[in-house]
Structure formats: C-alpha cells, structure tokens
Design goal:
Number of strands: 0
Shape: globular
Largest sheet: none
Structural class: mainly alpha
Order of helices and strands: HHHHHHHHHHHHHHHHHH
Distance between the termini: 42 Å
Strand content: under 5%
Length: 474
C-alpha cells in the first residue's frame, strides 16, 4: 500500500499543510539528537567509565551526518525520496531502541553513528519531495516551506537541552534515545498518510545505484575525518605523529580521486576554481568549531564544575538558542539592505565577546552572569549562520547550486566533529574552570580570525567595485 497523492484542493498555490509538517517533523530529529546530548555527556562518561573516547559519542553522529547528508540526497534522486525518508525513520527507531542496551562505549558509538545516518537522511529526502511536489504543481519551490524547516530546527536546538535535561535527570541518559521511538513511529505514520508515493522510475540495479553514490570518495572522506579526530585526541597525552602523516596521505588521495570522478562526493574542481566559495566553507567550518565547542562544552562545565543538574544546565544554555532565533530575524533586514558582510562582521564581534566572557566565568559566578554569557553566545550563531548561507548562495554558480548546498552542510558537520576534540583538549579531564577558560580562549581566537577575514573580504569587495546589490536569496 502506498500513500495517496498529496491533496490538490488548494489549486496548486500552496503545498498541503500535512505534507509540509510531516517533512518538518522528520527533519528535526537530527537537531533533537544533537541538542539533547549536550546535557547527557557527563552521565554517559560516568556510566561507561570513559575518558576522551567518549567524545566519539558526539563526533560519531556528526561524522555520519557529514557523509550521510549528501549521500542520502543522491539516493533520494535515484530510488525515491519517500522511500529514503521512511528508511531513515526505520534506522532512527532501530538505533534508538538498541542504544540503551549497549554493553560498552564502542557499541554506543556505533549505534550513535547509525542514528546519525538515520536522522540526517530525512532533510535531503524531504527537500527533494518539496521540490518534486512544487514542480508537479507548476509553482516555485515555496520559501515558506523551507523557512519552516529552518525554524523548526532552530526551535529544536533551543529546547533540546531543556528536554534532554529533564529526561536525563528523571530517567537517565538512555531516555534521550528512547524518546526517538514514539517520535519516529509517529512521523512514519504521518509519512504513510501525507507523503505522496514516489514517481515510477526506471529500475536500476544495486550496482548502478552504488556507482552513482561515489562510495570510494565518501570512504576516503570518512577516513580522513576519523584520522583527524584520532590525531587531535592523541594530543591529550602523547601525540601520534604517524596519524598526521596518514591524514596527509588520505587527504591527497581524496583530492586526487575526486578530481577524476565524473559525479564526485565533493567536487574539488569546483572548489579550486571558486576560491570565494572555498573560503566560505572554511569560514563556516571554523564558525561551527566555535559554536559546538560552546554548545557541548558549556553544559558539561555547568554540571561538573558548577554542580547543576542536567535539567538546570539545559535551562542555563537555553538563551544560546533563543537569541540565535532572534538574531536570525534581525539579520534578514540588514542583509536585504547591505548584503552579508556586515552580518558576518557583527556575528564575529559577538562571538569574540562571548568567548572572552567564558574566560571570565568561574564556578562561583552569579547565575545572572552565566545566563548573560549564554545570551551573548547565542547572537553570533544566528548572524553567522544566515550570513554564511547568503555568501554561499551568492558565490556558487547556478549549475553548482545543489553540490554547493550539500558541501555547505558537510562543512558545518566537519566543524562540529572537530569541536568534540577541542573540548577534550580544553578540559583535559573533568570539566573545570581552567578548562572552560581554555575553551573560551579557543573561541576568542577563532572569532578574531573570522572577524579579520570578514573585514578583509568586505574591503576587497569594495575595491572590486563596491557592494553588489543584495539578491533575493541574500
């Protein structure tokens, strides 16, 4: 049995509400599982008596997402977006049922990776369905539907730590996985009801489908990212320099292989000819190193050094996500008038202020200061996120738009993956004041580099003929 076609009673002018809300509900599971983990790490470390290896619980999901998002998008094009969406929900439910039963940390990390593959696939599959349904109705891809996906993700990031804190406090760390089971099943029921059946397509063999995914390129990328993580973690004790050598070899092999593949996982030829876009990806990755260093490191310090419960820590970090939503709304009018450069400059200044604020806090600081620093750190997330997206859309050629968007998300998750290692290096053991100050220094240094880069790009833009008129998508 397949779902009936989407409701067409609105005359093709709007996409059906149930259709859009179902896609949004599936897409936010990734944000939920990223944000609830922020307040569960202390309990997971204690449960498995884990040290630096516990950071793979964070980085495993992001590494899976960095590789899985573009791969899922390709699969949606080849085998059907609704089919990929439903399989993603099945993986999410299965991994969430098994994770609380993990006998050791290794199994938990493996199931967290499987969870990352499941939760990340819903977004590209959902966007593919939105585009297909819009084309079928003869309408442009609705900005309202895409905005709903973005807003839903931000809302989940905002309230995920609070929800996770309540769950961990009352039911243990296992509950942040188990909550996915009713949610995933519920979204699957909605998908069966509201998502239209995939269009008939020419049957392709498994070999043909796999060949179109560039799995060797994805494997090289995964290997390079994993080796980078292992090398950074080794710096907490005795550096393993052979890992650095292996990283150089893997990166060289990845670049050489991708330059020869007709349909690559990452189009290195596009990146070589479009240096402005490559710079935006680098800036995005650095931005997310800073953001996720705060997003995971700050709650760990609040619980370990300040002595807050998981739900208390979730409430303290709530201003980070709330102010991020406010700053997204504030950045829009600025970009329409002046482009993305002023937004990136403002975001970098706020990030610098927040990083310096972390270096000033200590375990006896008044609660109001903890909340104030969290609020300041929320502002740059919104400004930098929307500014980098606008830069990416402006700098990418129309023919590269799909690939450019996929690589943008990959750069975000690469930054998140590196942040997990930065947290381990910064705390170098239990999350204490000295470790928080080191993390704040890292955030401040990154933000200073981002500020210098944004100012330099703005100056060079003026020298090339001034600011371009803001475009509709900026």
């Amino acid at each position: 049995m397949t779902a009936p076609p989407a409701d067409t009673r609105e005359g093709g002018r709007h996409l059906p509400r149930g259709f859009v809300l179902t896609i949004a509900a599936g897409s936010v599971l990734q944000a939920l599982n990223a944000s609830t983990m922020t307040v569960a790490m202390i309990d997971i470390r204690d449960a498995f008596d884990a040290g630096a290896a516990a950071s793979w619980v964070i980085s495993g999901l992001y590494l899976a997402t960095a590789v899985g998002s573009p791969t899922a998008g390709r699969l949606a094009d080849r085998v059907g977006a609704r089919r990929v969406f439903l399989v993603a929900l099945a993986l999410t439910v299965l991994s969430s049922l098994l994770a609380p039963l993990a006998p050791d940390l290794g199994w938990l990390i493996a199931l967290r990776i499987l969870l990352g593959l499941g939760t990340c696939a819903a977004f590209p599959a959902g966007v593919a369905m939105l585009r297909a349904e819009s084309d079928r109705r003869g309408m442009a891809l609705p900005a309202g539907a895409l905005s709903l996906l973005a807003i839903a993700g931000q809302v989940m990031v905002a309230f995920g730590p609070v929800l996770g804190g309540v769950l961990v406090t009352w039911q243990g760390w296992q509950s942040i996985f188990l909550i996915n089971v009713p949610l995933g099943v519920g979204v699957a029921v909605l998908a069966w009801r509201y998502l239209p059946a995939d269009e008939p397509r020419e049957r392709a063999s498994i070999t043909e489908v796999l060949r179109g995914l560039d799995l060797p390129g994805a494997a090289l990328f995964t290997g390079a990212a994993a080796v980078l993580m292992l090398f950074l973690l080794s710096l907490t004790a005795t550096p393993n320099w052979w890992l650095a050598a292996a990283l150089v070899v893997l990166v060289a092999a990845f670049v050489a292989f991708e330059a020869r593949v007709p349909d690559p996982f990452a189009d290195v030829r596009m990146l070589a000819r479009n240096r402005a876009l490559s710079a935006t990806y680098l800036r995005t990755a650095l931005t997310y190193v800073a953001f996720y260093t705060v997003f995971y490191g700050y709650p760990m310090w609040l619980q370990n050094a300040r002595g807050l419960s998981p739900d208390g820590a979730g409430l303290v970090v709530l201003p980070i996500a709330v102010l991020a939503m406010v700053s997204v709304a504030a950045a829009g009018p600025v970009m329409r008038r002046r482009g993305h450069h002023p937004v990136l400059v403002a975001g970098s200044v706020a990030l610098l202020a927040g990083g310096l604020g972390l270096t000033w806090l200590h375990s006896a600081s008044p609660l109001v200061w903890l909340l104030l620093v969290a609020a300041v750190l929320g502002v740059p997330n919104g400004f930098n996120n929307i500014g980098n997206q606008a830069a990416m859309y402006r700098q990418a050629d129309a023919s590269d738009a799909g690939m450019a968007s996929g690589l943008y998300r990959t750069s975000q998750y690469v930054g998140a993956n590196i942040a997990a290692a930065v947290i381990e290096l910064g705390f170098a053991g239990p999350a204490a004041d000295d470790g928080l100050h080191r993390l704040g220094t890292v955030v401040a240094v990154i933000s200073a580099a981002l500020l210098a880069g944004a100012l330099l790009e703005q100056v060079l833009g003026h020298r090339r003929g001034g600011r371009r008129s803001p475009t509709a998508h900026s």
